[in-house]
Amino acid sequence: MWTIAKRVGLFLLLNFLVIMSMSIVMRIFGIGYYIEEYGLNYTSLAVFALGYGMVGSLISLAMSKQMAKWSYGVQVIDPNTSDYQLRALVQIVHSLSKRVGIQKMPEVGIYQSDDINAFATGMTKNSSLVAVSTGLLNHMDSDEVEAVLGHEISHVANGDMVTMALLQGVVNAFCIFLARAIAYAITMGRGNDNNNGSSWAYWLVSMLLQTVFMLFGSILVAAFSRYREYRADHGGAKLAGREKMVHALQKLRAQFDRIQPVTGNASALMITNKPSNLIENLFSTHPPLEKRIERLRSSN
Question: Which helix (H) or strand (E) holds 40?
């Protein structure tokens, strides 16, 4: 919930790698049925791009929980642990989950980091993981921890990761369609004899354009992620109390220097991150803490 680049970053990077890997495999096996003898079949290309883009995004979503565990070294907490603090953490997560109608309780984990952060991930709300850093437990009181967990459970209950995967799939589809259509026009649409889809020039140009378009598409995905952070803040306020949520964000703001900037596919799963310039703000998955606090205070 608190760090921008390491959780949505993990999802976006994994999605990009899946798409590129699939592109290479398809190139090797000569798959390109949308290119016909007399030109480009745009209907076939659109169907191909939608299916191709969605598969990459859904594979990324399916792998997101395990990838998060590996990336952060998350240790899943046994609900019957003898550690009182960790057992209480699990009980809070389960209690909040029941209140929002989650049927299968999320896994609860902890990872070693001085960073004050937490995240939620998983393919569905009934197959989710909520993890917190040791830094968060060491620097927040019980009310603030409850508010952070309420924020994360709101992400799970709202199905934010599934929605993001679908959005990313649509963005992928547009990127794939435009990249291949433009690459075809540049390399094969001017009477080129080699018009069978095997041209290396066509493939290389389409991959270059696809990379560029996906970079710009990630700005749209990041904008949606910022919207969902406001919504999760509101959900956390409803579950734990608005003042607790405000205090948690204020505590986070006071400890902002302890937050390490995250750059990668995991950024959107965290509770916040600290972009340092305009470009980073465009790709940031979280709004500024000041705006989040202001919006919470002004909400009814």
Answer: strand 39-40
* Closest C-alpha among 110, 119, 156, 155 to residue 137: 110
Query: In the chain, what are the domain boundaries?
Result: 8-298
- Output the six-digit token pair for 56: 């990459």
Residues with a known catalytic role: 152
Buried b (16+ CB within 10 A) or exposed e, 113-125: bebbbbbbbbbeb
How crowded is residue 17: how many other Cβ atoms within 10 Å of its Cβ? 14
Residue 192, SS3 per DSSP: coil
CA 258 to chain centre: 22
Per-residue pLDDT of the chain (300 residues; tens, 9 = 90+): 444 345 455 556 666 676 667 667 666 655 556 665 567 788 888 888 888 788 878 888 888 899 889 988 999 999 999 999 999 999 999 999 999 999 999 999 999 998 888 999 988 889 999 999 999 999 999 999 999 999 999 999 999 989 988 998 999 899 989 998 998 888 875 555 554 445 678 878 888 898 889 888 888 988 999 999 999 999 999 999 999 999 999 998 887 655 554 444 444 445 555 554 556 677 788 888 999 999 999 876
Q: Model's pTM, two decimal places?
A: 0.80
Q: What is the token pair recorded at 191?
A: 């009477």
Whether the Cβ atoms of residue 178 and residue 227 lie closer than 8 Å to each other: no
Q: Which of 140, 158, 156 is nearest to 148 (CA)?
A: 140
Could you tell me which residues come within 8 angstroms of residue 102 by beta carbon, excluding any fewer than 6 positions away?
125, 126, 128, 153, 156, 157
List of residues 6+ apart from 69 with CB closer than 8 A: 76, 109, 129
